[in-house]
Design goal:
seven-stranded parallel β-sheet; elongated; five-stranded antiparallel β-sheet; 2 domains; TIM Barrel; Immunoglobulin-like; binds alpha-D-glucopyranose; alpha/beta
């Protein structure tokens, strides 16, 4: 009886718990595109963010001198937000503090911040405000490690100040500082998402991951956490490696650089082309995830021209193809189409992404049991002719359907075909035996 009662009490709790995570993740799952921003001291000399001194390429002292160059004199937060909006992104994540510990806002915990840099002011608040005005969700990147802070354990690759087991009181001091800063960010900015980084340096119990999550959810139970909290977040965070296999996690986001650096670097001209960025983006969409594409503004707050252009070009494509981007779900197995696809949330619409145009202009779909009511080009409205072969009336085998894509409807990057089905997608997943057409 007691067990039965426990079960009755427990089942609604479970269902609610799941529903809750689902609904809190809804905007994130639908968003598909976010813009990551790495902006900090490192943007001044154009050296690798925090790692430049950690790895010993420059002394800590010289690294810190960049504070005199962090002027933000050409910083235009409204323009940043506008550009992000134009790219088609639904959210943005900015480095409020990277591993070196420099804070973009006016922190009361120490004075290593933008107010004490050449900028002389809090540069985070106006950007957050500009994002909110554009209706773009706000994500704050916050580095758990703080390599410059005197009570943090690690300083550089070769210098560790102390071990927690040797001096727990000192670690407590660091925790007071860390929670103090997180509390400021929580209260001043009310972010929609927290993007943690650097969890590898300590165990979850040492960071107090449970407490971090409850502390930051206090005023917003729907706030989302990435998984760099020793794996205890809401979504998986692959980095640079474009997933080859569909990630196992229900929610995930690939973070990716435009060139090979997160922060601005003078010498890094190895930019991906718009086609390559869109390749990666389409790959994420078709596998049911998000792309968090990074930009690295300079120390004066200007955004490098190459990055502006990439955002604009991406924006042109996302605007035209919005119905095949936002709110979509992972597509169908490659057995049915040799390329990326996505489905509408109710799976009655199949989006087929065509990158490489077949010589005869025909796009082949296989094993779709539904009737295809119509196929049209997204953002262009051309209705396509279709013809099915190898289909016999008495057998469930759906045959091969060719959609004819006329040349004038082609997009320079990806042409997307919307396939309107007669109901939720129904795939033929059986072995084909002899289908006699006698
Ligand atoms: C890595 C790096 C860091 C960068 C981050 C972005 O964890 O430590 O420099 O900010 O990836 O995903």
């Amino acid at each position: 009886m007691k067990n039965w009662l426990t079960l009755c009490l427990f089942i609604p709790y479970l269902a609610f718990g799941q529903m809750d995570q689902g609904s809190k993740m809804q905007w994130f799952q639908d968003a598909k595109l976010g813009i990551f921003i790495h902006w900090g001291l490192y943007s001044v000399n154009g050296i690798s963010e925090s790692w430049a001194f950690y790895n010993g390429y420059i002394s800590h002292e010289d690294y810190l001198k960049q504070i005199e160059g962090f002027s933000a004199e050409n910083y235009d937060p409204e323009y940043w937000a506008e550009l992000i909006k134009k790219s088609g992104a639904q959210y943005s994540v900015i480095t409020s503090k990277h591993h070196e510990g420099f804070a973009l806002w006016d922190t009361q915990f120490g004075n290593f911040d933008a107010v004490n840099a050449a900028a002389g002011k809090d540069v985070l608040s106006p950007f957050v405000k500009a994002l909110q005005e554009q209706n773009i969700k706000v994500g704050l990147y916050y580095s758990l490690p703080d390599w410059s802070y005197s009570d943090y354990t690690h300083h550089t690759k070769t210098k560790q100040r102390y071990k927690i087991s040797e001096d727990p009181a000192r670690w407590k001091k660091f925790q007071t500082y860390m929670f103090g800063q997180m509390g400021e960010l929580r209260d001043q900015f009310q972010p929609d998402l927290w993007w943690f980084d650097g969890d590898w340096e300590h165990k979850a119990e040492e960071w107090r991951v449970d407490h971090i999550k409850s502390f930051l959810s206090e005023k917003n139970p729907n706030v989302i956490f990435n998984s760099r909290l020793n794996g205890q977040g809401d979504y998986a965070t692959p980095e640079i490696g474009v997933p080859v296999l569909r990630p196992a996690a229900k929610y995930w986001e690939l973070c990716m650089t435009m060139n090979d650096s997160w922060g601005f670097q003078y010498n890094d001209r190895n930019y991906k082309s718009p086609q390559q960025i869109i390749d990666i983006f389409v790959d994420c969409i078709s596998k049911g995830g998000n792309l968090l594409l990074d930009i690295g503004p300079k120390g004066d707050g200007s955004i490098p021209e190459e990055q502006v252009q990439l955002l604009q070009e991406l924006g042109n494509w996302t605007r035209k193809h919005q119905e095949a981007v936002y709110g979509t779900r992972a597509g169908i197995p490659y057995d049915h189409y040799y390329g990326p696809t996505a489905l509408s949330a109710d799976s009655t619409m199949l989006y087929v992404y065509v990158r490489d145009i077949p010589k005869d202009g025909k796009v082949l779909l296989k094993g779709i049991k539904n009737r295809i009511n119509r196929a049209y080009v997204v953002g262009d409205a051309t209705i396509l002719d279709q013809k099915t072969y190898c289909k016999v009336y008495w057998n469930a085998y759906p045959g091969l359907t060719y959609l004819e894509l006329p040349e004038q409807a082609l997009d320079p990057y990806y042409t997307v075909i919307a396939v309107v089905l007669d109901g939720p997608i129904n795939l033929y997943r059986e072995q084909t035996g002899a289908i006699e057409s006698n």
